[in-house]
Design brief:
168 residues; 4-stranded mixed sheet; 4 strands
Length: 168
């Protein structure tokens, strides 16, 4: 009888132990993975900023200069505008403004009209080589925003310009 009791106790112990065991989950969690290091933050000016545009095309290529009372685009101007067009083709999300400026001579109204013709001449050239017109805004400041303040030919030459400014 002792063997029956011993066998019964063993059987009861085995059943009790089996009931305490954990069952495997129906679906196992994915194995742990290493968290990738965050990508380094870009350095330098943001794409589309004026600083990015200037560094990409060169300061000398952001402004087109004109002769007195003129708004024609010559070969040198075409070269500058082609550099700008390459940038604006590469960064198709960037919109920009072309500002028309004049020297101090002439009336306010005359210079506003001439500045508008200068800005539009640059815009029309860019459009003719593939930049969509809806990305380009023009504005004329006439003689109101000179970069050179002297009243001589050198200063006037710097002020007769169409300057490209990115909007971002």
């Amino acid at each position: 009888m002792n063997t029956r009791v011993a066998t019964g106790l063993m059987l009861a112990s085995t059943i009790a132990l089996a009931a305490c065991q954990k069952k495997a989950p129906e679906e196992l969690p994915p194995p742990p993975t290493e968290t990738p290091a965050p990508a380094p933050a870009p350095t330098g000016p943001a794409v589309g900023s004026q600083q990015h545009f200037v560094s990409a095309v060169g300061q000398e290529n952001t402004v087109v200069y004109f002769d007195t009372d003129r708004f024609n685009i010559d070969a040198e101007d075409q070269s500058k505008l082609q550099r700008q067009a390459q940038y604006f083709s590469q960064y198709s999300q960037v919109t920009f403004t072309i500002e028309g400026h004049c020297d101090e001579r002439g009336t306010r109204d005359y210079n506003l009209a001439l500045g508008e013709r200068r800005a539009n001449a640059a815009k029309n050239y860019l459009v003719s080589i593939g930049i969509p017109a809806n990305r380009i805004r023009t504005v004329s400041y006439g003689k109101e925003r000179p970069v050179a303040l002297a009243s001589n030919e050198a200063a006037w030459a710097q002020n007769r310009r169409a300057a490209t400014i990115t909007i971002g």
